[in-house]
Amino acid sequence: MSQKFKEFKVYKDAKSLVVLIFRLTRRFPREFYYLSDQMNRCCLSIVLNIAEGAAKKSNKDFNRYIQNSLGSTSELAAALEIAKEFNLISEKELQETEVLLNQVIKQLGGFSKFLSKN
Questions:
Q1: Is the Cβ–Cβ distance between 20 and 97 less than 8 Å?
Q2: Fewer CB atoms near the end CB (10 Å): N or C, the chain?
Q3: Domain that holds residue 88
Q4: pLDDT by residue (tens digit) across 72-92?
């Protein structure tokens, strides 16, 4: 079974995002469990959709998974803003996370365009 997804820069960057988010959310107070759990699940979804989509037979199918990953990036962006509003993360942490998140978003968008053309 091919694991070509491991070679994709977007996969590697998305994995880095997972590590960053898990490190941030593990210090959230218990009353924000649902927010931290949702943030963890949506950043995992980004990575896992890339991996699952790479196993599909057609670019059209793969692109559907890339689109799902993009949806999860928007969900994560919203959750980060909420975390900032409750002072669970600092402005600096928000900005640093958004830099990596925006890189992943751009890569996913480019990947989607490539898959649509081929």
A1: yes
A2: N
A3: 8-117
A4: 999 999 999 999 999 999 999
Q: What's this model's pTM, rounded to 2 decimal places?
A: 0.93
Distance from CA of residue 69 to its chain's centroid?
Answer: 6
Tokens of 100: 């990596």
Q: State the DSSP string of 10-78.
A: HHHHHHHHHHHHHHHHTTS-GGGHHHHHHHHHHHHHHHHHHHHHHTSSSHHHHHHHHHHHHHHHHHHHH
Asked whether residue 55 is assigned to any structural domain, the reply reads yes
Residues 39, 87: Cα–Cα separation, whole Å: 15
What phi, psi does 89 have (nearest 5°)?
A: -135, 155
Q: How many other CB atoms sit within 10 Å of the CB of residue 64?
A: 15
